[in-house]
Amino acid sequence: MNEFLIDQLSETPSELDQAQIERWQLRLGQQQDDRLVTLQYDRLGFKRRAGFAGLKSLNLFDYCQRVGKYIGPKARLDDLQFDNLSKQPGNGDVINFTNERQRVVVRVTLLSAGIADETDQIDQIAYFDQHDRLVRSIYYDSRGFKSLEATYGQDGGVALEQFFDTDGAVRLTFGYHREGEQIKIALIRLHARDGQWRVFQQFHQLVAYFFDTLNQRGHHRFIANSVVQLSALADMHTPAENFMMLDQMQTNDYRRLQSGQPTQAFQQLLAAIPADIPLVAATAQQAADIADRWPELTVKAVTPIMPIPEPSAKLQGQRLIMNAAITPVNRLEDGIKAFRRVYRELPTATLTIYGTVVDHQLFSQLQTLVNTSGLSEAVTFKTDATKIEEITRNADLFLLTSHYEVYPTAMAEIMAAGVPAIAYEINYGVSTLIEDGVEGRLVATGDSKQLAQTTIDILQNDALRQKMGVAARSKIERINQQIAVPEWAELLK
Question: Is 397 helix (H, G, I), strand (E, B) or coil?
């Protein structure tokens, strides 16, 4: 069984977790008996997992707390009784309970209607002392049972967390201590299924024990995508075939990919990775760059399998799109500056920028750039998670202006729907997906003027754009069928 490791199933997953989810979904489409294994505590995870059709998953905390399909009573507001306290409705789903001096002693938060199964289902209860300091919090799983109780110290930091099973017994505890401004784990105790208490000093040791327990029940292959997961794999006592997906660059210096200062994340990876766990890169060039610089590492290149959506692109207008998280590395300002030239030439053109806001200061700067450039009527930001079909239905041409890409997944998905692309000539993977003049155009990195003129040329030529769109979809299909699927089959056989 292949275990695809992620932190949690959130509504807006990190790029790393999203890549893992897509790998699992593609394997699911091949009717494989694979599973998503989530490692962070997530009281709402059960509800989120229910939204994935055919999802086979396991959560570390659910396993440690011995939580199965809980069908018991839900904790509801009417079940609470606080002597000598008055109930005072707060804002939204918050209810305060005050003493005779109108001081809040208890604050209850209810689950929102989209998550709760029953009316007035409790999400959290917070208790305050006479100095209005938070001293204790009780958290409820979305399934309805008391799941976690946190106790806080005099400094306001968490001192102890106790995790409960559905019968109210403590199964897992985390003790904490303060080091300067940081609260760190001091001790972890697990009531194991053999009845013994086991002690761990660090979180990745608990994760390693979890992996070993799973591995003892049959052959498991663990597919990691973070350093914490990798540290746990290194601590395992049972033999397993593991590997690390390299969804990151080895350096932020896109001009010196083979010699630039390693990123902090890659330095952590180098410190944690055992010699027997290979790295899996998305392109042969990145694998070669890493192997040349760090010959002690084993690096494999495996082309990502891309989802192939129904061809939703109409290519009937002058609608330009970008789809990238709002971070400096994606250089979205280049697209806006190029569009400023496009808009002067083609006043009916529009630019829609899709992407999660990671850097809020940058987002504000990009909005200011749009407004000061007189583009507020033509440029739109859509920062909510959007399905690829919704994006491509409103697209005639795609722009990629990143400093670098591990693999331009967003571009490949959009090309698969039949949208041509213009991209900077960057590492890695862009030239694999685009042959200049066939599926789109490649322009010199950072050349905003060339980017603008190339965009104008394609937007003005309907026949060329249609031809490139057909070629773009065909290219992704061909890469999938002839390269990616065989490589993944070999990797996971």
Answer: strand
